[in-house]
Amino acid sequence: MLVLLAFIIVFHITSAALLFVATIDNAWWVGDEFFADVWRICVNNTNCTEIGDGFTDYATMQAVQATMILSTILCCIAFLIFLLQLFRLKQGERFVLTSIIQLLSCLSVLIAASIYTDRRQELHSQNAALYGQTAEGTYGYSFILAWVAFAFTFISGLMYLILRKRK
Questions:
Q1: Which residues of the chain have pLDDT under 50?
Q2: DSSP string, the chain
Q3: What is the structure's pLDDT at 127?
Q4: Measured distance CA(142)–CA(88) in Å, rounded
Q5: Per-residue pLDDT, 82
Q6: Do 8 and 163 contact (CB within 8 A), yes or no?
Q7: Which of 48, 111, 149, 151 is found 20 to 30 A from 18 (Cα to Cα)?
């Protein structure tokens, strides 16, 4: 049981770390001489512009930002609640509250990555001339980590739903 508990804790911490990196790091869309994320666009690794009101379709980027932050916060809250439930739950009960919060985190990262996937072409092609770059590029590792974090949080949420407290 101790090995299973250690695995679940490490898996949850890994999920949270993936969410932090995907939210913070600047590699959602990368191309020749530029990279972009949900916070800023950088050209030639030196000329960085924050995504703000002048950005076309700024509301979409705010939705992606908000849901990525929400997923990270919910994942951390789920971990803290898991630790509390670990000591408070009676033997044989399930970690339902932890599971619900972790699945909400999963849903939030799914929404963020889906919005970015759907609107990426519009976001970068409309703003390419504005920021002196081309829209040609590929998805970066932070975008991929967001989708991996989705899978990890989903699996983690299901594990908590199935898991019962034992001695």
A1: none
A2: -HHHHHHHHHHHHHHHHHHHHHHHSS-SEEETTEEE-SSEEEETTTEEEE--TTSTTHHHHHHHHHHHHHHHHHHHHHHHHHHHHHHHSPTT-B-HHHHHHHHHHHHHHHHHHHHHHHHHHHHHHHHTTTTT--S--EE-HHHHHHHHHHHHHHHHHHHHHH-B---
A3: 53
A4: 36
A5: 92
A6: yes
A7: 48
pLDDT score, position 114: 92
How many other β-carbons are positioned within 10 Å of the β-carbon of residue 55?
A: 20
Q: What is the pLDDT of residue 20?
A: 95
Q: What pTM, to 2 d.p., does this model score?
A: 0.86
pLDDT, position 135: 59
- 82 and 12 in contact (C-beta within 8 Å)? yes
Per-domain boundaries in the chain:
2-161
Q: 124-146: string of b/e by CB count within 10 Å (b at 16+)?
A: beebbeebebebebebbebbebb
